[in-house]
User: Which sequence fits this backbone?
C-alpha cells in the first residue's frame, strides 16, 4: 500500500493539482423561506418515518415513498413536485433518517432485526458433527 501512496505523492510533486474554482457557496444553503416551507414536511416525515421504523420488516425506501406521496397529497401546489419543491425533498429525506433510527428500537429492546438480511447474518451457523 505504501508504494501506491508514494507514487501518488511523486505524481503530485511533478504535476500539482489544479486550483479549485471557489465559487459563491451562499446559494447552496437553504434560505429562511426554505425552512419555513419545509417545516410541516419535516414534522410529518419525522413522525411517519419513526412509526414505520418501529414495524419490523419495513424499509427506509417505504418510508421515503409514503412520505413523498403524503407531501404531494397535502401540497398547496402539487404541480411543483418533480421540479425541485423543497417539501418533496425534505419530507422523504427526514422520513428516511427517522426510520433508520427508529428501526434500532425493536432490535435493542426485543432482539427483532429490521429485515430478513439482518436476521440471516446474525443467526448462528449450524454445527457440523
Assistant:
Amino acid at each position: 500500500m505504501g508504494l501506491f501512496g508514494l507514487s501518488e505523492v511523486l505524481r503530485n510533486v511533478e504535476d500539482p493539482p489544479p486550483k479549485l474554482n471557489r465559487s459563491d457557496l451562499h446559494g447552496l444553503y437553504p434560505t429562511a423561506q426554505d425552512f419555513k416551507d419545509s417545516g410541516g414536511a419535516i414534522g410529518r416525515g419525522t413522525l411517519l418515518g419513526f412509526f414505520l421504523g418501529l414495524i419490523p420488516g419495513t424499509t427506509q425506501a417505504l418510508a421515503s415513498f409514503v412520505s413523498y406521496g403524503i407531501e404531494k397529497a397535502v401540497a398547496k401546489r402539487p404541480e411543483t413536485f418533480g421540479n425541485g419543491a423543497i417539501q418533496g425533498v425534505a419530507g422523504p429525506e427526514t422520513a428516511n433518517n427517522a426510520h433508520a433510527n427508529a428501526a434500532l428500537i425493536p432490535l435493542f429492546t426485543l432482539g427483532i432485526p429490521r429485515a430478513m438480511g439482518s436476521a440471516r447474518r446474525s443467526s448462528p451457523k449450524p454445527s457440523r458433527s
User: Anything to note?
Assistant: The radius of gyration is 23 Å. Residues 35-116 form one domain.
